[in-house]
């Protein structure tokens, strides 16, 4: 085993499969500039959790590469698209949650004790970490497709070198994205336009994952093979359209319900102030 060659292989394979991850991290840090729940620490932890899942899948996947192809993972790119749509709906149809949270009393004066606040904070942190890790896994189709054959032809010590190098480089990747967003002019732009840009970044990220993974051509080919009429394109188009319309309708309904709950309270407040 050549130690230097193993490190070089690890660095090159990581760079090839994660150069686009800087875009993902920049998206997260742009959101963190204005989000009260998403922080750089949570982004980093989420990245490591998601990348750990990718490494685990890759290490067991080279023994079951025919059972677990990497292409279908690309369909998870629909989730960032839906996340971007949800943020866009919240931007166009604000529910007033931000103002409602801003008007809460200080700790210990809003009807919650310390234990409830700690539990709420823990759940919020866990949700943010899971969101980052989930999107990291979604964007890991090329990682899995590269790491599976790489691990398959490597020996035990070489795999250990690969994994350790990957984790070190992942930290440097997070640091690079964080330093980009720490630039004052970049930070000012992020704070001013993040709410408007982030939804489209998520939708772009989702489309990029789907296109990069070739999940649709892969599925269409599989469907066409089983039928002489080649219905793959029509089936995938109908299924995707119906799924997206159902999810978007559910989001609009939920936003409408939230606005309906807030409007009566606001009317009562206005009526009481007039009297």
TrEMBL record:
Region Disordered, annotated ranges: 99-118
Membrane-spanning segments: 48-68, 75-93, 159-181, 193-211, 234-253
Signal peptide: none
Alphabetical keyword list: Membrane, Transmembrane, Transmembrane helix
Coiled-coil region(s): none
Pfam family, one: Cad
Protein's UniProt keywords contain RNA-binding: no
Protein origin, superkingdom: Eukaryota
Record's keyword annotation contains ATP-binding: no
Protein name per the record: Cadmium resistance transporter
Organism, scientific name: Penicilliopsis zonata CBS 506.65
Upper classification of the organism: Eukaryota, Fungi, Dikarya, Ascomycota, Pezizomycotina
């Amino acid at each position: 085993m050549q130690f230097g060659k193993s490190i070089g292989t690890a660095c090159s394979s990581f760079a090839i499969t994660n150069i686009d991850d800087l875009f993902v991290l920049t998206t997260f840090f742009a959101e963190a500039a204005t989000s009260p729940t998403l922080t750089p620490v949570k982004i980093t932890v989420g990245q490591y959790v998601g990348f750990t899942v990718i490494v685990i899948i890759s290490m067991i996947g080279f023994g079951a590469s025919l059972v677990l192809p990497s292409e279908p993972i690309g369909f998870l790119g629909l989730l960032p698209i839906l996340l971007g749509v949800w943020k866009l709906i919240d931007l166009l149809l604000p529910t007033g949650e931000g103002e409602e949270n801003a008007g809460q009393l200080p700790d210990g004066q809003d009807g919650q004790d310390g234990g409830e606040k700690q539990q709420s904070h823990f759940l919020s942190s866990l949700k943010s970490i899971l969101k980052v890790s989930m999107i990291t896994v979604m964007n890991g189709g090329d990682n899995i497709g590269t790491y599976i054959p790489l691990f398959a032809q490597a020996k035990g010590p070489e795999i250990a070198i690969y994994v350790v190098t990957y984790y070190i480089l992942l930290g440097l990747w997070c640091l690079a994205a964080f330093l980009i967003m720490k630039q004052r002019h970049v930070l000012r732009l992020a704070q001013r336009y993040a709410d408007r840009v982030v939804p489209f970044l998520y939708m772009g990220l989702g489309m990029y994952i789907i296109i990069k993974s070739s999940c649709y051509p892969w599925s269409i080919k599989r469907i066409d093979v089983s039928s002489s009429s080649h219905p793959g394109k029509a089936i995938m188009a109908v299924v995707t359209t119906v799924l997206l319309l159902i999810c978007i309708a559910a989001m609009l309904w939920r936003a409408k319900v939230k606005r309906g709950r807030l409007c009566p309270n606001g009317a009562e407040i206005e009526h009481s102030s007039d009297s």
